[in-house]
Write a structure and sequence with these properties.
The protein is of the alpha/beta class and 142 residues long. The chain has five helices and five strands. It has one domain: 3-Layer(aba) Sandwich (Rossmann fold). Strand 4, helix 5 and strand 5 form a beta-alpha-beta unit. The two termini are 26 Å apart.
């Protein structure tokens, strides 16, 4: 069984990744175990924790993650594609790499930002870092 991770941040790029997946899902030779992952960037450090309780901060991360995942969940539900969704906190590329390893994912789908000229060689910091930190195929959707 293929275990596919889709990194979702709620952007238009993420929506294109979900559309690509829906279109290409029937081409998989075996069933896929699909994981949607949203990674919330850690807010502040000691200063934030002095003023905001850990529970409040975790609730914030969950609410923001749910917002980012909402459109992807709705599209996949409409397409009748089963999935598991996850929200984590930390450096997005590092969390993606750790998730791939812990869940045994063998493919990553993610968006990249389209930049022009020389800066176009840099796919985006998260995509570039994920490519370097993982040893599974990564499909970047533009």
């Amino acid at each position: 069984m293929s275990r596919v991770l889709v990194a979702v941040d709620g952007s238009e790029n993420s929506a294109r990744v979900i559309d690509f997946l829906i279109k290409e899902a029937p081409l998989y030779k075996e069933p896929i175990e699909l994981h949607l992952l949203n990674v919330q960037i850690t807010m502040g450090g000691v200063n934030v924790k002095m003023f905001i309780s850990s529970d409040s901060l975790n609730q914030y991360y969950k609410e923001e993650g749910d917002k980012a995942l909402a459109a992807a969940r709705a599209r996949l539900d409409a397409a009748k594609i089963m999935f598991n969704s996850h929200i984590s906190v930390g450096d997005p590329a590092e969390v993606i790499a750790a998730f791939v390893k812990s869940q045994g994912c063998n493919h990553i789908l993610m968006g990249c930002r389209g930049l022009g000229s020389v800066s176009g060689l840099v796919l985006g910091s998260v995509a570039t870092k994920a490519l370097h930190l993982t040893d599974v195929p990564v499909t970047l959707i533009r």
